Amino acid sequence: MERPVLVMSFDDQGGKKMVTDEELTEDVADREQELWEWAWSTPQACAWSLEPWRWQTVAMWVRTFVICEGHEAKAADKGALLRLQDQIGLSPAGLIANGWAIARDELAEKSATKKPIASSGGSRSRMQVVPGVG
Question: Would you say residue 24 has pLDDT above 70?
């Protein structure tokens, strides 16, 4: 759900009011979506998928992260980001607090170091002439 981004606007008489900045609202929503997708691609997402009660905390981490990227972020926002990061295991301290460990992907490493089978010249080199056929 998009959260409108408000900016100060001044009218001709010197009055001011808060108005929605549609373009900035869209940019923030795009960034939140990008972070949400990244977060769910991490190894921690496996644990989150088994614990739906954490999903709101992941969403709050995403939203707080975007706020902290902006120039109006306060110290309290940055402190909240660190606490949320720990709660969802996106920091070394959070991994320990949750009792999680991330295993190295040994299969991917073996696949990456495996040498491809050398080709001997294509399918013609594998064909044989069979006498008496034809």
Answer: no
